[in-house]
Amino acid sequence: MGSIFGRVLRAATFGESHGVGVGVVLEGVPAGLALEAETIQRDLDRRRPGTSALVSARQEPDRVEILSGVADGKTLGTPIALLVKNKDARSKDYSALAEAFRPGHADYTYFHKYGLPPQPGGGRASGRETVGRVAAGAVARALLATLGVSIQAYTVAVGSVKAEIIDPAFAESDPLRCADPDMDEAMAEQVKEARSQGDSVGGVVEVVARGVPAGLGDPVMDKLDGLLGGAMLSIGGVKGVEIGAGFAVAGRRGSANNDQMGESGFLSNNAGGILGGISSGQDIVLRLAIKPTPSIARPQRTQSLNGESREIEIKGRHDPCLCPRIAPVAEAMAALVLADAWLVQRAAERMPS
Length: 353
What we know:
- By secondary structure, the protein is α+β, with helices and mostly antiparallel strands.
- It has one domain (4-350): Chorismate synthase, AroC fold.
- It contains eight helices and 18 strands.
- It has helices at residues 37-47, 107-114, 130-145, 168-171, 184-196, 224-233, 254-257, 323-350, and strands at residues 4-5, 10-15, 21-27, 64-68, 70-71, 74-75, 80-85, 150-158, 161-162, 203-210, 238-243, 261-262, 265-266, 274-275, 278-279, 284-290, 300-303, 309-312.
- The strands form six sheets. It has a five-stranded antiparallel sheet, with helices on one face. Strands 9-8-10-16-11 form a five-stranded antiparallel sheet.
- Strand 5 and strand 6 (74-75) form a beta hairpin.
- Helix 1 (37-47) packs across helix 3 and helix 6 packs antiparallel against helix 8 (323-350).
- The two termini are 38 Å apart.
């Protein structure tokens, strides 16, 4: 199973939604990096459920344990093992679904690949797998901070409501991570309306990395935008990624889309901070299309394990909109890609000519 990510900075996540716990083993972190459990916990707290009425009610404290690789607040250069134990799993909520495939979930494809019936909460395919990613991303973020790099993600659309202005500071205080103070109530209403109808709603999350030095990324097959795109699409629920102006470039002319340059640098950022697969030094800007949560309370037609048609309703505690909890996961994946790219670049520069 493809659970390992990265080239020099390698993260291997483990665990299932209703197992003992979830976590990650991270190798490639240089020795001497200041790292405390609280640094990792801050990002886990931003991802965990039960934080507002607009996300899953599952009550998980998500307290991280550092099992190895850190001593006296400093990394040792050895593998860092991070564990978060599951505390509030309710497997009985899935007992009625053990013989049927949930529409929109990986139950059907996992069954055909591994021969296993649907696992409680989706097992390895659950969004809870992202705990390990966020923990690893917090370490990568600490490494990038030494270079002056910061990363933030926020919600710019929910259903038909789109942000018209971007206020990153406001997004951190909003339950949906909405970036527009004038649109937060309208976005929340979209979520509440969908939930009241036993349904869910999709949206768009924007990710911005600031302070990224120029020169990260490798042509031709290891382009930075390709690595970032793959990282984002590896997150459950992400169905599309655009960089910079994204799909809007299809309707433009080159004279309007090219980022021209003056004495002070670039005059625009339609490329989203990446040219030829290499960082330009501008902000790296990504937008992710997030699908509606597939676990909904409305009756749906599906198939049993033996191929019989049946109707199911999914019980349990689920996010009516994935955007606010995917945002910190997207930040983590961006941090892992950028930190890995920097370590690759540093290794190349140290090689004898």
